[in-house]
């Protein structure tokens, strides 16, 4: 693959071993996927932060990489960690876990990565522009950036996103190229899809009928497709179908030709998906909301849905520290706490070790959480809308 003089210098070790290793990884990836050259990126978003996921080998790799001089060249945000980085003891996180988690975060901070610890960087200060090349790795953020913003990224692994941050480059293949962003099938959505819950179910239903590629979705009323619903929709699509890009008529920004092949989604498909997602549980130990991380407006909406009702079952709302700071300043956090709802930052229900909370049964309104939680945290999961969860588990 073609490399500029600067990229060759990186590969030849002129900027030290960390840059050399990073460039070697990216060149290898580029060769595998047939990239002709590198492209400069404007930002990176790095997954694989939780000690629960990467363990001691990941921690040792990061500390060693730092010693070799790893330093990011572009703005880079961390994905959620395995705990709230400030209030971890309140969540029953053992000290040994917390100590190792902080070492991971500190190693990355010393490399220049912002400890934003969020899967919604676009709500927390890292907002790419249309057509900008980026290297992000969290699947829900990747699909949002590609589809809703129209930026360009592949679904990077943690190491390749870090390598991209260190070199400021990524190999030009996949979704960085126009030809791979063309939709193949038109998904015609017949029933009205309105609420966040509907959007999650629709994503599941699409994944059952269209397994791979880029869908073009029609039939959604743009007034219903707000940022919160689109992020929930994309996260579920990326979880059940490993999709990284969708186009939605009159909603997403890319101007593409409408594919002739059509797949219809009917009301019966949505009902079927609703039945299939999650377990039928009469009781739960915990309710988790904010997967992907909640926006300020999303937090405000929870308060509105609660309408003064206290939760019998504790509810955790996950968000970024910066969104939490705004919610706190707006008194949303204190109002929610009175109703047995806690807003926690820096972590997520999937990468946090829920076993320390002695939780066996969880309820959520997130299709992505339904998909991952049974495996990552060995819990049974009930899937329902926020309104019905409040109805069922509120006082
Ligand atoms: Fe975010 Fe964790 Fe869900 S990273 S999308 S809250 S699984």
Q: Your description of this structure?
A:
By secondary structure, the chain is α/β, with parallel strands linked by helices. It has helices spanning 5-11, 17-32, 51-67, 95-110, 139-149, 158-167, 196-209, 227-241, 267-276, 296-306, 321-329, 332-337, 367-376, 386-393; strands spanning 38-40, 44-46, 76-78, 135-136, 169-171, 185-189, 215-218, 247-248, 262-265, 286-294, 315-319, 341-345, 361-364, 380-383. The longest helix has 17 residues, at 51-67. The mean pLDDT is 96. FE3-S4 cluster binds at residues 79-80, 119, 138, 140, 235, 291-293, 318, 348, 350-351, 368-369, 372.
Reported for the largest beta sheet, the result is: 5 strands, parallel
What would the principal axes of the Cα set say about the shape? globular
Query: What is the CATH class designation of the largest domain?
Result: Alpha Beta
Give the cofactors and ligands: FE3-S4 cluster
**Percent strand:** 5-15%
What is the succession of H and E elements? HHEEHEHEHHEEHEHEEHEHEHHEEHEH
Please give the radius of gyration in angstroms: 21 Å
Structural class: alpha/beta
Segments where pLDDT lies below 50 for 5+ residues?
none
Q: Can you give the helix content as a percent range?
A: 40-55%
What's the number of extended β-strand segments? 14
**Tally of domains:** 3
Strand order of the largest sheet: 12-11-10-13-14
Q: Helix tally?
A: 14
Distance between the termini: 63 Å
Per the CATH scheme, the topology name of the largest domain is: Aconitase, domain 3
CATH architectural category of the largest domain? 2-Layer Sandwich
Mean pLDDT: 96
This entry's quaternary arrangement is single chain
């Amino acid at each position: 693959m073609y490399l500029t003089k600067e990229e060759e210098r990186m590969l030849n070790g002129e900027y030290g071993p960390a840059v050399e290793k990073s460039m070697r990884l990216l060149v290898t990836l580029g060769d595998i996927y047939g990239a002709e050259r590198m492209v400069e990126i404007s930002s990176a978003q790095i997954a694989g932060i939780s000690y629960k996921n990467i363990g001691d080998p990941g921690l040792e790799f990061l500390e060693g990489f730092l010693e070799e001089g790893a330093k990011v060249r572009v703005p880079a945000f961390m994905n959620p960690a395995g705990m709230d980085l400030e209030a971890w003891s309140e969540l029953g996180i053992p000290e040994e876990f917390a100590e190792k988690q902080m070492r991971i975060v500190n190693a990355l901070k010393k490399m220049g990565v912002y400890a934003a610890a969020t899967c919604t960087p676009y709500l927390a200060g890292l907002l790419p522009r249309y057509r900008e090349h980026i290297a992000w790795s969290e699947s829900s953020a990747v699909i949002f950036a590609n589809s809703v913003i129209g930026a360009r990224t592949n679904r990077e692994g943690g190491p390749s996103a870090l390598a991209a941050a260190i070199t400021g480059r990524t190999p030009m293949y996949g979704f960085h190229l126009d030809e791979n962003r063309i939709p193949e099938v038109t998904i015609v959505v017949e029933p009205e899809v309105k609420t966040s819950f509907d959007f999650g179910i629709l994503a599941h239903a699409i994944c059952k009928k269209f397994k791979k590629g880029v869908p073009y979705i029609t039939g959604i009323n743009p007034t219903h497709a707000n940022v919160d619903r689109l992020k929930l929709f994309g996260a579920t699509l990326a979880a059940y179908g490993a999709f990284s890009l969708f186009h939605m008529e009159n909603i997403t920004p890319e101007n593409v030709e409408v594919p002739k092949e059509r797949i219809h989604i009917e009301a019966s498909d949505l009902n079927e998906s609703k039945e299939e997602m999650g377990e039928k549980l009469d009781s739960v130990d915990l309710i988790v909301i904010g997967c992907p991380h909640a926006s300020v407006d999303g937090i405000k909406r929870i308060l509105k849905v609660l309408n003064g009702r206290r939760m019998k079952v504790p509810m955790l709302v996950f968000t970024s520290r910066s969104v939490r700071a705004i919610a706190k300043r707006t008194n949303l956090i204190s109002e929610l706490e009175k109703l047995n709802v806690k807003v926690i930052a820096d972590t997520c229900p999937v990468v946090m070790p829920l076993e320390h909370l002695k939780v066996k049964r969880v309820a959520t309104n997130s299709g992505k959480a339904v998909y991952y939680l049974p495996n990552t945290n060995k819990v049974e999961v009930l899937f329902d809308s926020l309104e019905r969860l409040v109805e069922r588990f509120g006082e």
